[in-house]
Specification:
This protein is mainly α. It is about 70% helix and about 0% strand. The protein contains 30 helices and no strands.
Length: about 625
């Protein structure tokens, strides 16, 4: 398809005389036959694309339906999917993304907000739209494979992308992975198309797609230097023409970055180029105790919002003054750079571990555990191809493709640049997933190449390929700390708890505590599960155990206050909420509950003051009219 369209356009610009000589005995008939064959070819290709799209979309819809019938469909509070849902709801209701510096790249929540504006739209429509984008990505992978390799490679790569387990998995999670993957593939495809045509409007398309991608994922910035170098070397024409095209792409990307910077500067009064979470994420991946994967340096398993709050507070403590979000982010970024500069040996070991984790077949959990969901849902288990099956073939294809490195330079450059973007921070399934399509293309090329070796009976090369493949399998299954059994039990317990499977959740937390006996986050999750299950005495004992070891655990004080509130023990509830408020002075819901406690105790003056404080911290007035029982949500 990607080859036929430009050929057809070339024929229109320089038509062959015999095609348009209607009325002459030979030429007219040959011209009609040629046009008929071309029309039939394009029609057949269109049907093939439709069936390919339908296949990929159907697999995702089947998984969406299976997930929708389970208690795991809606996102658990506190994690990124729930935060994106809240952002999208605020955007749809006209409140935007707040007055603070962006905590995440803005394109995805704004797209969700637009979907939430559709009558009857919401969470399900967002999942449906992501499934649609995932299926479109399959067609684009076919187009890339056809341009860079061959029709056989294109079809195999498209099928691998259609049945990629990790792609199906993230297509129905409320995180930006599907959108970022689609935009990465779109930018890559449009770049190849623009290279073939080399028209200004095609490079404008590349620039616009790149600018959209910047709003979704800053990792594309790592790719642009490689792209500009390739354009200088490989584009036809004079240097001035090449520079014009590079300038178009640069201008679009700079404009996108400038809009984010101006928004942060004018609304948040903070000169932050992108987001406020990049600094702490950089430090997590680059500090003396770094493991190559996510680890909270303040407490285990901390959610993203809590991580930002803790990192901001810690930065202010170390510097001894109040900081803006941008200043706190820069503080952690500088600490990470200081580690790299002063301990190059330790940094080299961490970088090597990240490299091995990147190519490991295990999907390091992030907001959801792929391996847990694969064990629970049949579509993922039977129709989803694990990355562990694809990556050894991908490595074989990468090595086999070196003889065509000039032709495949852009694909190698994309893989290297995005791997560098991930390794700059830390490795997990969510960060790695958007560039799996490049590995899939190399894996498909390895399959076609191996088939050709077998047909040609090149036994020496077959043996060498088998040798490389076995070593790739060993490398991708090497135990380099990708798995964390305690974290797996914790993630499983959280998922089961929010799904209402309280008994199974408690068993999972007990296994995690056996490995980490003093982990207050696991203890807190277990106490919350007891609370949800109605075992208030067990929950109380759990919170008090946490507070005996960690007296400043604000959320335990809050939940203990909610527990006493539900038992109408107003005096103890008041004490717990006051202590929680003293530790977290910007939590509106603490003051709201405190106002209700004062109201029950007939302390009108204190109740009014607490309610006004809750409103000043952002509590919406309509919530004050709701029944208090509807707000008894354990954190």
């Amino acid at each position: 398809w990607a080859q036929e369209v430009p050929r057809a356009q070339e024929r229109e610009r320089h038509p062959a005389p015999h095609i348009y000589t209607a009325g002459r005995a030979g030429g007219g008939k040959e011209g009609k036959d040629s046009r008929l064959k071309y029309s039939m070819s394009m029609s057949n290709r269109g049907r093939q694309f439709f069936y390919l799209f339908l296949l990929a979309f159907s697999v995702r819809i089947l998984y969406l339906c299976e997930l929708g019938q389970s208690p795991f469909f809606f996102p658990a509070p506190g994690l990124d999917p729930f935060l994106y849902h809240q952002w999208a709801t605020d955007i749809a209701q006209g409140r935007g993304m707040g007055s603070q510096v962006y905590q995440a790249m803005p394109l995805y929540p704004y797209c969700l907000g637009l979907l939430y504006l559709v009558p009857g739209g919401g969470f399900f429509w967002a999942m449906l739209a992501q499934s649609f984008l995932g299926a479109l990505s399959v067609l684009l992978v076919y187009g890339i494979g056809r341009i860079l390799f061959s029709p056989a490679v294109a079809w195999i790569a498209a099928f691998l992308q259609a049945f990629s387990g990790i792609a199906i998995f993230y297509d129905v999670i409320l995180v930006p992975v599907t959108l970022v993957t689609f935009l990465f593939i779109l930018v890559f495809f449009l770049t190849l198309k623009a290279h073939r045509q080399n028209r200004i409007r095609d490079w404008v398309g590349v620039g616009l797609a790149s600018s959209l991608t910047v709003w979704a994922h800053a990792g594309i910035l790592f790719f642009l230097p490689f792209l500009f170098f390739w354009m200088l070397l490989d584009l036809p024409g004079a240097l001035a023409k090449k520079l014009v095209r590079i300038g178009i792409v640069t201008g679009c990307v700079t404009a996108a970055l400038g809009l984010i910077f101006l928004r942060n500067l004018t609304i948040a009064k903070d000169p932050v180029l992108l987001t406020s979470h990049s600094g702490i994420n950089f430090y997590i991946g680059n500090h003396p105790g770094a493991t190559g994967r996510f680890q909270s340096i303040f407490s285990r398993h901390t959610a993203s919002k809590q991580l930002l709050e803790d990192s901001h507070k810690k930065a202010e403590e170390e510097l001894g003054r109040s900081l803006t979000a941008g200043e706190a982010s820069r503080f952690w970024f500088q600490k990470g750079l200081a580690f790299i500069r002063t301990e190059p040996g330790a940094f080299g070991r961490v970088l090597l571990k990240k490299f091995l984790l990147f190519w490991n077949g295990y999907e390091i959990p992030d907001v959801r555990d792929y391996h847990f969901f694969r064990s629970e849902f049949r579509v993922l288990r039977f129709a989803g191809l694990p990355f562990a099956w694809i990556v050894p073939l991908g490595l074989l294809g990468i090595l086999a493709g070196f003889k065509q490195v000039r032709k495949l330079f852009l694909l190698y450059a994309f893989g290297v640049s995005q791997m560098a973007a991930v390794l700059s921070f830390f490795v997990n399934s969510r960060y790695r997933s958007p560039l799996v399509f490049a590995v899939i293309l190399f894996a498909a090329s390895a399959l076609v190449w191996s088939g050709r070796l077998i047909r040609e009976r090149r036994y020496g090369m077959i043996l060498a390929a088998f040798f490389i493949l076995m070593h790739a399998v060993f490398l991708t299954r090497l135990d380099v700390g990708a798995t964390d059994e305690g974290l797996e039990h914790y993630n499983r317990g959280v998922a089961l708890s929010h799904a209402g499977e309280y008994g199974e959740a408690i068993k999972a937390f007990e296994k995690a505590l056996w490995l980490y006996p003093d982990d207050e986050v696991v203890q807190f999750a277990m106490a919350n599960t007891h609370f949800r299950d109605g075992h208030l005495e067990k929950a109380r004992l759990g919170y008090e155990q946490i507070l005996s070891d960690h007296p400043d655990h604000a959320d335990s004080w809050f939940n203990l206050g909610v527990l006493y509130f539900s038992k109408k023990d107003w005096e103890r509830a008041e004490g717990a909420f006051i202590r929680s408020a003293s530790l977290k002075e910007d939590e509106a819901d603490v003051y709201y509950f405190l106002s209700e406690v004062y109201q029950k105790q007939k302390k009108e003056k204190e109740a009014t003051a607490a309610r006004q404080k809750a409103l000043s911290l952002g509590l919406r007035p309509e919530l004050l009219e709701r029944d208090i029982e509807t707000l008894l949500l354990v954190r």
